[in-house]
Please model this.
Amino acid sequence: MYRLSILVLIGFITSCSNPEPTSELPNIIHVFVDDLGYGDVGAFGATDIKTPNIDRIADEGIKFTEFYSASSICSPSRAALLTGRYPQRMGIGQVFFPESFTGMPEEEITIAELLKKKEYATAIVGKWHLGHRKQYLPLNQGFDYYFGIPYSNDMESVVYMRGNEVVDFEVDQHYTTKTYTREAIDFIEREKDNPFFLYLAHSMPHVPIYASEQFEGTSERGLYGDVVQELDWSVGQIIQKLEDEKLLENTLLIFSSDNGPWLVMEDHGGSAGPLREGKQFTFEGGMRVPTVAMWKGKIVAGKVYEDLATQMDWFPTIAQMVGVPVPDDREIDGKDLSAVLFSDGERDGDTFFYFDDMELQAYRSGDYKVKKPYSGFPGAAWKQKVPAHDSLLINLKEDMGEQHNLYPEQPDFGISLFEEMNQARKELGAFPAPLIIRTGADNSHYRYLEQKHKQEK
Model:
């Protein structure tokens, strides 16, 4: 049977306006990197990091210049990608830790669970970060196969898991990108004659960053650039495998990032390019991410889409492509991108919410963005110093770097957008209480001893 392959590379899939679902099931590979900035890819302006394979996807497919993650941090962005829903609907506003007893609720429906209705083989290779207790792991969320680090690579107890079991307590992160790539290619080899979904979620370039010897010293941007060039190599290996198996013409290849760069990490933290700020903030640099996709013969080569699209859109897009109804028992926030991908159409809807944890901080409507006053952040080892600001009104088409605040010049328009934001937020409905991520340790015994010793002196 002629089989269509869809490759979702680093978090990216699109949809058709009113297409007929494909009669032959496509494969899907989603490559999702961690903390990659808008300015870290050649197709988006980087000159000191070489990314020929990622750039090839843009050249032979589509580049999204205004593509958003639903969050500026890891766990919420991944929950949104897999479910098509704002993560606040699940109570997920923060990242999970090794000591977390919570995770993405089991009743959420993932892309993998959708595709199981069409008997897809489903796998995730790489970072999960949606809860590592057994009930929250990938095998309970529609995936047949899992290999990877279950949370961020800077957290305690970094391990490799296979399925629900730890298989390696000693992880050498110099080889994590190569290890994930090998696992991904092995999965493609096993399932090449069946429809499959591969979610390849790289741990890099999240700190601490590591590259294998083959890539150390190869870029013009130090170790960070070396790491990104190795990720690009990984993309090239996936493309080569698809070509070898004669699957490329039947494959949608998607590449994206979970959020913006972690700028406080300086030369280990990437670049937001022309965008303001990065990870952990609701400025564009934190949530607008480099995204490209290709499907030879299906997506016109060299296409550029310069309007709003989001990671949440992949859920309804994939559902449409394979002919699976979108669940009607819950709100799905993503929009079908088929018209954007496969014709000259546009995405339905031009609004977007910028949440920080469970708080709505900003809102986009058409070309304009309003952002509520912010008290600033003094800076810490883990978060960039950012000054306070008053209400912001930005024309994103003319000022993607958010440097010119129009609010003092057009206060009435700004107020009207804030009113629209508040009404749109009400229409989202009530959110559940935020999940308890972790609780602090009781260190009263140390304080007792400290006080006791002071009194004895």
